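Hi P.,

Sorry for the delay on this. The queue was packed all week, but I finally got your sequence through. Input first:
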Amino acid sequence: MKKFRLFVVILSVFLVWSIGSDVESIEASNPLRLQWPVVMPYASGSFDGVNGPHTGVDIITTSNPEDYTIVAAAEGRVSAVKFDSISGNVIKIEHTGFDGGAYYTWYGHLSSMDVVENQSVTRGQKIGVMGCTGKCEGTHLHFQVMLNSSVMTGLPCLACINPCDYLVGVVSGTYGKCGIDGTIPTPGPTLVPVATVTPIPVPTPTATATATAQPHMIMIRQRVVSLPHRKLQTTHYWLKQR
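Then the structure:
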């Protein structure tokens, strides 16, 4: 009996470990991948690390004419829409469901903001317009990524991570290239089931016998023939096709 109980305990531990391993493997299959938030981007400023002084990357557009549209780098929830003396007009978006925890993307120095707090946004959705508000020199976007916190209380910024490790697509920059190779996973099209139409069988027409006109006898005339001994009434018939 003791051996049986020990077997049950070992089996239970194994099952728990197996389930946990499966969960970890599922979570590990969803890394954060970010879309560049600027049209035709160029990295004009680099990430200096957690000790700063620059805790994000500066991005300008090389489009001609200039397109200053700023879009969300990934789907998420807008956690802050505000102004501060350093970042100027700034939007923060929370991204959950990815490996590692909750990520936050910052979009600073905006000239205008098109979203509100707690609003859900999709990847590539317009959220504002590039500008030069706050402490800024020249129109650009300050783009920052943080892990498990969106609050900066000074340096070092231990929650700050290098955006170039998550932005998909390698672009040129003043201090070198920025971005990673790869593609951003996109959900496949939703398949709408279509009812299968079963054709109604059409009866095959059967051959109909064509009535063939049968010849029949038609009486044309009657006459009485007088013979010496008797009268003989004769009727003449012949065939005629109708």
